[in-house]
Design brief:
It contains 19 helices and 28 strands. The protein has 603 residues and is of the alpha/beta class. Bound molecules: flavin-adenine dinucleotide. Flavin-adenine dinucleotide binds next to helix 3, strand 4, strand 13 and helix 19.
Length: 603
């Protein structure tokens, strides 16, 4: 009999992941060598209508949509996602594995110090589906104000919430529950038959969470149709608890079925080929390390995401002139905004322990229970605890005093997430980790192109990118985070339902903060500096904007300023962050970009 520790243990999962990383790579390498034999491995120039760089959240969708009408080459640096990606329970372990991730290094940070001296290294998914294949599956669209603000910034009405709703409806299969009193008709706000499944997390704690919110004077609302200041359930991109991504929903089912779609894995794009008329006409890439070239008769689309897109642009001669000159890269076009304006969400964890744990509200599994639950989940019908998303998540959105002072009264900027983990055996304490997040930060950082390394011959984008988040350097951002912490303490310590559960603040405090009076403003300032970090929602380094904005990289139709036939379609285009985890919004922009391309090339 396998033991619970065997099936669910971190070491076991790492072994399984290593097995798949190696197996997938070797299988694809053998097929690649076989295919290349007739050409003696020499670069063979293939021509497609569209070449898409990066098969992540945006890239998988674009490849699927564009190959409905055109010939498409999708180039992805990684391989297929391994089987454990189906179960979001393993997300953290997959995020750690070098076989399925790129690990980006940060510069020491000014606003956060932390045990590692202020580094904030970050991993992103390197596999089909990108980070959408291992992320937390949290599905939030953001506030209508986020989109209406983009429409204003871009001077383009098509970005207003009422106009982008059709893209959300196009890709969603919403099987969730609509909470609240906003008179929301499912058909007006949610898609019913799209490729991405969306379901509401219904953990037993949810009514208790809502009660706490109501006691504090907040409404209970739906998080997605019309996000407001409210307590809401957590919504996931999943079906019966299994991950639903642009890989599973769009690409996987058509791979190998469309002769006009070629998907090449382990294919790492170095640069975009741009001619003397400033027109992109192809890419140079390495397939399993072997140099190759592909041409695009219509367009090249960059979707390798926030850290890598600016690096590829700079390697191709598009970026700040001073950086290009320093790296001795021929200047194709001076675009000062490439790599600037790095945006993210920032937050801290606060841990609580329930001393009066109620077994009904806070799931308990027996010592062997987890193993049984995993087996039920893996069965064809996917049943049990994991399929119901019982491992509780719930959330609340708040409008900070800072936002109110800016006149943004109905536009939330704080997200607080309640997250409980399964209790194994009745005696183990029930811990709850609160995620306390500021979503609309003013602080902005930069992806720095390492010219020294480039001059030494390094070409790998991950090595060339130095990430300076500059998180929490803006004083107002710190004020908002302090307010978010206070909201969290109030919910967990002062409301009747949470008091009934005996919630105690049990977070380990860094020793350097213990010198300040316990829970004083100085104490929390220290805690934030030591414990805050990126919330893995990087964006902004190729920001969308109007031509008059010197630092805009793409226009409101994703076209790179100054270069013909080149677009960026990934999370890097958002000029400011939304009040939401950004995967849903990244799926949306890919649908929008596909429609723009269909309209443009209709004839
Ligand atoms: C740990 C983590 C947890 C997250 N949790 C959530 C969540 O719960 N909910 C949510 O909404 N968002 C979450 N996010 C954010 C969300 O997943 C990303 O914002 C989203 O996936 C970005 O989509 P993208 O298409 O821009 O890039 P990605 O999905 O990252 O895809 C980029 C792809 O390009 C490939 N690539 C990179 N360089 C090259 C190259 N040179 N040549 C070829 N291919 C290349 C990569 O391998 C990758 O597959 C999380 C992110 C992380 C990292």
């Amino acid at each position: 009999m396998l033991t619970n520790t065997f099936l669910t243990g971190a070491a076991t999962i790492q072994l399984i992941l290593s097995y798949y990383a190696n197996y997938y790579n070797q299988t694809d390498l053998a097929a690649t060598l076989e295919e290349m034999k007739p050409d003696f491995g020499l670069p063979k120039i293939e021509i497609f209508d569209f070449v898409i760089v990066g098969g992540g959240t945006a890239g998988c969708l674009l490849a699927s949509r564009l190959s409905e009408r055109y010939t498409v080459l999708l180039l992805e640096r990684g391989g297929p996602p391994p089987p454990p990606t189906k179960n979001p329970y393993y997300g953290y372990q997959i995020e750690q594995h070098p076989g399925f991730n790129d690990h980006f290094s940060s510069t020491p940070q000014k606003g956060i110090k932390g045990a590692d001296g202020g580094l904030n290294n970050v991993t992103t998914g390197r596999m089909l589906g990108g980070s959408g294949s291992h992320n937390g599956n949290i599905y939030n669209r953001g506030s209508p104000h986020d989109y209406d603000n983009y429409a204003k910034l871009f001077n383009d009405e098509s970005w207003k919430y009422e106009n982008i709703l059709k893209y959300y409806k196009r890709f969603e299969s919403f099987g969730g529950i609509v909470f609240g009193d906003q008179n929301i008709t499912r058909s007006d706000y949610f898609g019913q038959s799209g490729p991405i499944h969306v379901e509401t997390n219904l953990p037993p704690i949810l009514p208790t969470w809502f009660q706490a919110g109501i006691e504090l004077g907040y409404k209970v609302q739906d998080p997605n149709a019309l996000q407001e200041e409210s307590f809401t359930p957590m919504v996931k991109s999943a079906k019966n608890g299994r991950r639903s991504s642009t890989y599973t929903g769009y690409l996987k089912k058509i791979m190998g079925t469309r002769s006009n779609l070629r998907v090449l894995m382990y294919s790492d794009v170095d640069e975009v080929l741009i001619n003397e008329n400033k027109t992109a006409y192809g890419v140079v890439y390495k397939r399993h390390g072997m140099p190759q070239i592909a041409h695009a008769s219509k367009e090249v689309i960059l979707s390798p995401s926030t850290f890598t897109t600016p690096i590829i642009l700079i390697k191709s001669g598009v970026g700040p002139k001073d950086v290009l000159l320093k790296a001795k890269i021929p200047v194709k076009h001076h675009l000062p905004g490439v790599g600037k304006n790095l945006r993210d969400h920032a937050g801290v964890f606060l841990e609580f322990t329930a001393t009066n744990s109620s077994d009904e509200l806070l799931p308990v599994v027996s010592e062997t229970g987890l193993e049984k639950e995993l087996l039920k989940f893996q069965s064809v019908e996917s049943s049990g605890f994991y399929s119901r998303n019982d491992l509780g998540h719930a959330q609340a959105f708040f409008v900070s005093q800072v936002a109110k002072k800016r006149g943004q009264t109905g536009w939330p900027d704080i997200q607080v997430v309640f997250k409980q983990t399964a209790r194994v055996g009745k005696k183990s304490p029930q811990r709850v980790t609160m995620h306390v997040i500021v979503n609309r930060l003013e602080s902005q950082g930069e992806v720095i192109f390492d010219t020294d390394k480039y001059l030494q011959g390094v070409r790998d984008a991950v090595e060339l990118a130095k990430i300076d988040y500059n998180l929490l350097t803006d004083e107002e951002d710190r004020l908002v985070l302090m307010e978010a912490i206070n909201h969290t303490l109030k919910i967990m310590e002062e409301t009747t339902p949470m008091r009934a559960l005996g919630m105690n603040f049990t977070q380990a405090i860094p020793s350097v903060c213990q010198t300040f009076p316990y829970r004083s403003p100085e104490f929390w300032t220290c805690y934030m500096q030591q414990m805050a970090g990126s919330w893995w929602h990087q964006s902004g380094t190729c920001k969308m904007g109007q031509k008059s904005d010197e630092f805009a990289v793409v226009d409101s139709k994703f076209r790179v300023f100054g270069i013909n036939k080149l677009r960026v379609v990934d999370a890097s285009i958002y000029p400011v962050t939304l009040n939401a985890n950004i995967n849903a919004a990244t799926i949306m922009i890919a649908e929008k970009a596909a429609e723009d391309l269909f309209n443009e090339y209709a004839s």
